[in-house]
Amino acid sequence: MDPDWLEWARRLGAIAQTGIEYANNDYDRERYAAVRSIAAHIAAAGSGADVARIEQLLASERGYATPKVDVRAAVFRDGRVLLVKERSDGCWTLPGGWADVGEGPRAAVEREVREESGYEVRAVRLAAVYDRSRHAHTPLMFHVWKLFFLCELTGGSPRPSIETEAVEFFAATELPPLSVGRVTAAQIARMFECARDPARPTEFD
Q: Which of 28, 41, 137, 160 is 20 to 30 A distant from 17 in Cα terms?
């Protein structure tokens, strides 16, 4: 679970973002901007990050505030799961990332696997929908929903990318160090359970 200070900052930032979008006068916009500044100061106090940088991050968001969507693929071969090694932190994760505007969930997760691993897959089942803040991830300023899909391997070959430096399959008992900002050991364990039991229902927070 995320710390309280992050949840407070995130909610205040969302209120400010939506308020600025729909305010009818400069006075209200100024007040919402003040709320956004308070959110940035809370986040900076809790994280040790630079206030100005957080304020800039919050100000870059426009429109009605909604959760961001992260898609992840669980691809299995011979009882092992496909993981990619991130260049940014040197740790491993299920292939995936942010869904693009104008792109459906299936297309997004299949594209992410292709770009990050070189493999071609077909998404066959939505295994889980998680609120990122309710799981043991490293903190993030924005509210994120994570969609996990079971995917069938259809072709391709292992190929690192500008974001990934290695591509391998791992057994459940031999997982490498994980990029916990992207995936947790518990989430991967859940994907193994779903792969073993096709009747297991989609899990959601």
A: 137
